[in-house]
Design a protein that fits this description.
The protein is an alpha/beta fold. Helix content is about 35%, strand content about 10%.
């Protein structure tokens, strides 16, 4: 194999072992393999799909529609071959034992060898949540979360961040990312607010350039990955208190709306994702839709919503790619497992993320088809869409990892782009008495745990699903960035160190990491700053002549009563691994240009509040952001 020249001695050995395990099956080629049109790259993709579908059994087709979690197959990789799995994924925090580029590539290539041991040698599609960089990999470039990128108003920057993310991801094996999220967040109490580019569908649509960054112009180029627009549709527009998932309050809840409003707000970014950006896959949401036209009280889960999945998305909008369910999403549908599978397949879902029940899914799907409850035509449509993506990715010709770009992972050039994204995302909300930019000659007092915590700075979906505080990734903290710009800096996390003699104070407040509904307000979370953060503001702003407050969080916090105590207030979002980018604007190396992608409420009770609402009276309106000039 051509790619083997790029492997180290250790990785060659790992791959050879994997291939050797599959050798008995690999030695038996498919019947008339030399004449198989699907193996001929000169044949158009449509012809290859048709040829391969005609050779497949029902069981082989069912296997292609199943996606298992890495943790479910790693101990018995023969399942990949036995079931003919179409895909394997790494859920948040599901990594190889050696969480290194080589460890990832060895793992994915080992699984791929098992897939190529099947009768028809259909390659595996490996999926991962590279949502703000290749964030499961320690050492990858970690970009700001989408909410911060929305604040930049820079579609080209979003495209470039996605391009780098794709390159770093593909160099370690995965060919598919479950990103970008093109949800429109309409209530910042939602724990996934930071996954959205903002509250205005026009802004979210503009930032869909990330899809091109991921996929490029040619998916067969091993610098690119298949993108996934998610979560179709309305997941950011659910009603607070409507969720029935565990203790969640709003995530996976119900979008109560009429069809016209739904199309204008929730559906619009997907139309552009399909028709302009040509996204390869779409992930339906956990949430439900309840149409007001027929009376409220009969919501339908998106996984079962044939009107929206098939009639609207596939037929009216013309989506030619495939739909992949979210993590065990069909388990939330009514009925037993057979009914759940039947309902979701007939509604239009093509691939099923069944992390720990892929064998059961395959058996059930085959039985439902044979019983006549799922049409064969629906199976052929689903599998054809999946195969089309695999052909477009060039996996039949180059199934193994191209490791030639692994050296660029976390490179200085990539981190420079992330640092620029951090700087451009900073939103200056208040700047009295020209408090900012700071001067390098000033004696600066820094307070707050978030000033020196890379894990808090990166937020959820970083190394693990929920993320974590502490030095979880390499990078620079905001404090380190400040120290690189000023010679006289005192740091006290709890503001207990003496403040006397300092010219300026910088208090860094904010949230600790969370992901999805775990972060919902009312599920152990609030929009109010912590008692420690409020105390730090009181101590520092009450004692130091010039006081600047930075908010490191995935959404606005309630600062209405605290704002008069500050000279300057900056929303820093979740900047990722390059905290030095925050310091770049604090000290005037770069100008403040960011603008709010969401409305900033006066109180938690004011949510939901969005631009265009009647009696709109926020603390800071959508689009607000003061500007500065770079210091000469």
């Amino acid at each position: 194999m051509a790619h083997s020249r790029l492997l180290t001695v250790g990785s060659r050995r790992s791959l050879l072992v994997a291939v050797a395990l599959a050798a008995p099956l690999l030695s038996v080629p498919p019947a008339r393999a030399e004449a198989a049109a699907y193996l001929d790259s000169r044949v158009p993709v449509a012809g290859r799909v048709k040829d391969l579908l005609g050779r497949m059994t029902l069981e082989e087709k069912a296997g292609q529609m199943a996606q298992a979690e890495r943790g479910a197959v790693d101990g018995d990789q023969g399942q990949i071959t036995a079931l003919g799995l179409g895909s394997v994924l790494s859920g948040g925090g599901s990594t190889p034992a050696a969480n290194t580029p080589e460890g990832w590539a060895d793992m994915v290539d080992g699984y791929q060898a098992r897939a190529l041991a099947t009768r028809l040698r259909i390659p595996l599609l490996y999926g991962v949540d590279s949502v703000h960089g290749h964030n499961n990999l320690v050492g990858a470039t970690v970009f700001p979360h989408n909410i911060a990128l929305g604040a930049t108003r820079d579609p080209r920057l979003v495209r470039e961040a996605a391009r780098i993310t794709a390159m770093e991801t593909r160099a370690t094996g995965p060919q598919w990312t479950f990103a970008p999220c093109v949800c429109v967040t309409r209530d910042v109490r939602w724990g996934r607010t930071y996954e959205s580019f903002g509250e205005d569908p026009r802004l979210v649509t503009a930032m869909g350039t990330g899809i091109e960054g991921f996929q490029g112009r040619n998916l067969a180029d091993t610098r690119h990955v298949l993108a996934t627009a998610k979560h179709y549709a309305g997941d950011g527009d659910t009603r607070f208190g409507s969720s029935t998932t565990g203790t969640y309050t709003i995530d996976q809840g119900v979008t109560v709306t009429d069809r016209r409003t739904f199309a204008r707000i929730d559906l619009a970014p997907y139309v552009a994702a399909v028709r302009e950006e040509r996204v390869g896959s779409i992930m339906p949401s956990f949430s439900s839709v309840d149409w007001t036209e027929d009376g409220v009280g009969n919501p339908v889960k998106m996984s079962a919503h044939k009107e929206l999945l098939t009639d609207v998305l596939k037929r009216r909008i013309g989506f030619p790619g495939f739909l992949v369910s979210d993590w065990e999403a069909i388990h939330q549908l009514p009925g037993d497992y057979a009914v759940q599978v039947r309902t979701a397949v007939n509604a239009g879902i093509d691939m099923f993320m069944e992390p720990y029940s892929a064998p059961q899914f395959v058996r059930t799907l085959v039985a439902e088809v044979r019983a006549g409850r799922i049409p064969t035509s629906r199976i052929d449509d689903a599998v054809g869409r999946i195969l089309r993506a695999k052909f477009q990715l060039g996996l039949f010709e180059r199934p193994y990892t191209d490791r030639s770009r692994a050296g660029s992972i976390g490179s200085a050039a990539h981190r420079a782009v992330a640092r620029r994204a951090v700087a451009e995302s900073q939103v200056l909300l208040k700047n009295d008495r020209r408090a900012l930019p700071l001067k390098p000659s000033q004696r600066i007092y820094v307070a707050g745990a978030n000033a020196d915590d890379l894990g808090n700075q990166a937020g959820g979906w970083t190394v693990t699903w929920q993320g974590g505080s502490g030095a979880t990734i390499p990078g620079t903290t905001i404090l380190q960035g400040i120290r690189r710009n000023a010679a006289d800096v005192t740091y006290s996390a709890d503001a207990s160190a003496p403040t006397a003699g300092h010219d300026a104070g910088v208090v860094v407040i904010g949230e600790t990491p969370y992901a999805e509904g775990v972060g919902d307000v009312g599920n152990g979370h609030t929009l109010e700053p912590s008692a420690a953060d409020r105390a730090n503001i009181d101590r520092v702003c009450g004692a130091v002549r010039t006081c600047v407050v930075l908010d490191v969080a995935g959404r606005p916090q309630i600062v209405t009563g605290l704002l008069p105590k500050m000279d300057a207030f900056v929303m820093s979002w979740l900047p990722g691994s390059e905290g030095a980018g925050v310091a770049d604007v604090l000290f005037g190396k770069r100008p403040f240009r960011g603008r709010l992608p969401v409305t900033w409420p006066r109180s938690e009770a004011q949510e939901p509040i969005n631009v265009g609402d009647e009696h709109y009276d926020p603390l800071f309106p959508y689009g607000h952001g003061l500007t500065t000039r770079p210091r000469s």
